[in-house]
Amino acid sequence: MNPSPATLKDVAAAAGVSVSTASRALAGNPVITEQTSERVRQCAEELNYRPNAQARALRSSRTHVIGVTIPSLVNPFFATMAQVIQQEATARGLSTIISSTAEDPGQLNASLDVLATQRVDGILAVPYNGSEASFERLRKARIPVVLLDRELPATGLSTVASDPRPGMDAAVAHLLANGHRHIGYLSGPMTTSTGVSRLAAFQAACERHGVEKREIYRGGYERADGHAGTLTLLDRGVEAIIAGDTMMSVGALEACHARKVIIGRDLAFIGYDDNVTLRLQASPVSVIDQDVATLGRTGLRLLVDLMSGASPPTTVTTPTTLIIRPSSDFIRPADEVRT
């Protein structure tokens, strides 16, 4: 009588792991350590284990589910991005798993690992510097990935991001044309590509247009950073402030209200990313706009192409534009200086 063929349960028992861990190890899931994977593979070979053909076909089939990781669902920019992606995905017959990572690289890495175990067909992710290793594991596992908003050049992954230079240059030129010559900038963190590139764009615009008096507050992409930074810049006597992201824009408004500084009269203010909060101010806020809907739709289209085996461009860059509103569109008298 021939012995029964080895099962996955037999392999798991021999390797001292659970059945699910053995299955993931044999499938090359990056969540499983290389040491454990090697032990499972060795046991499978010794037991002459052969996966069931039907089970193997099931594992290789598509789930029609994609993962989306964003830094925050409180931030209107990323909430809109998630909504656009979900709507576009639904129209294409795809379901989405959305994870908010709280601007924390550790949470991003954990979310990516979980999405990998859920056998998603692909992932759209807003990355952080320092998360390269997690994306490398996804690449080795052949899970299609498209980065959104922020770049990680070392990964070589397809990326959709905006170019801050056109909008920032137009913003600085607009302020100068209206007589606002002492300009402050609320900068995002240097741990993100957007924080670095937007600060560089502001500095380059000031150099190009001859801004002699400029102030920079280096903070983070949080409302509290915008609030603290605005108070600091006001104390330095700036006549105008440009915010480097949505949540800092909201924090800046709160700081001005607290100080009883009237935007559009006492201070020229330009926010970042268009949203209803900025449009509904007593003095509607000018913004440097990235067109988040286009970013989200473009990212999803690239991911779908990747999942179908196509090779999309490594990087797609969309321009930023300046939308002028009353918060900055007023003339400052030549002899008026803020104190």
Automatic annotation (TrEMBL):
The gene is rbsR. The keyword DNA-binding applies. It comes from the Bacteria. PANTHER family: HTH-TYPE TRANSCRIPTIONAL REPRESSOR PURR-RELATED (PTHR30146:SF148), LACI-RELATED TRANSCRIPTIONAL REPRESSOR (PTHR30146). This is Ribose operon repressor. Residues 6-60 form the HTH lacI-type domain. GO terms for molecular function: DNA-binding transcription factor activity; transcription cis-regulatory region binding. InterPro entries: HTH_LacI, LacI/GalR-like_sensor, Lambda_DNA-bd_dom_sf, Peripla_BP_I. It holds the Pfam family Peripla_BP_3. Keywords: DNA-binding, Repressor, Transcription, Transcription regulation.
